[in-house]
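Here comes a specimen:
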Amino acid sequence: MIDKIQKWFIYLIPISLVFSILVADALVSLVAILFAISQTYKKNYNIFLNKYFLFFFIFWIYLIVNSFFSYNIEVSLSRSLPYIRFGLLFLAISYFVSDTTFKKNLFKIIFFIVLIICIDSIIQYFFGYNLLGYKGHRSRISSFFNEELVLGRFLLSMYPLVLISIFYFEKKRIFQNSYFLTFLVSIYMFVIYITGERTAFFLFLMINILFIIFLIDRINLKNTILILLISSLLIFISTKHNKHTIERYLTIKNIFKSGDFIIFTQIHEKHYLTALKIYESNKILGSGLKTFREVCKKPEFHPEGCSTHPHNIFMQFLSELGILGILFYLISFLYFISKLLISFFKRKTILREKSNFYKKIFLLSFVLISIWPLSPSGNFFNNWLSILTFFPVGFLIYYEKKFLNKS
């Protein structure tokens, strides 16, 4: 009974991420608590020895220790203590997706949620309002997220899961047809483009480049060209409809406008300079989790670059968690790069379980992109972003284990 409850809570997480972060976070917390209790009751202690969870657990311990040396202990502890729930979430997902029915249902839920959002986004872009009457912004759309301009990030996070979901539809001739996949990826690219979220769009392009590189033997060149043509045509049509979207993307030229190289934008550069100043004041431990917003107000830390976070994952780890914290980040980043490289060189020797190999590549590519250091980013420790980052990790654990067991 308790397992069924957890499964239903997991079903609801992708939906609640769209409409209520409070509900989504509550569901994650409930799944984490119930999973820890149920597995302990079953004496299934081995599940907690998973390498991803063990690394996460050590990182969590560091966050707690770091909080006691923080600029604001109470604020840091309020974020670090309950952070373990995200590790338990991906562990729970990796455990439950071994149930074929649950796995199929969850992937179908994700697929249709994203499909509805894409349709709604296109309606909002061309008609000004979405299905719920939410008005689009001048150069950006948000669909059901309304005032929260995070649609692009949500679609980027769901992308590998949407691709994997294709494998679980009974009508495989339709959903796995190359032309259907071509159309799906083209529309997906177009919708992320019209969100106006430049980072999400460029990371989406990057993740597809990774797919092409690592699955070069599987990629159909004709379909790849077709995707580019369809996407380009849709973007051209959208430019005629609303020039503000393309103008938003063209602001990237401002990086070189003054003659001096600017990191992304002048505002971003100020954030990063402030983060570096904070790091230099406490190189070992940083200022403490969730304290950038407070410490940056001090005159010695360039308050003109003050914000809730540095808007870059590397700079956030550096300023708030110090050298010790950045080690966890670098180990993770290098690990996923090495996993992808190993997969690339082994791809021709894979004779069985190719579908699981492809799924693993999709998820590895996403995790690497989600922690990419050379782009602006949201607050890594934000609850909504943490769910989006760690939710797919559960699937990665499952497919890695399945692939190793059968290949």
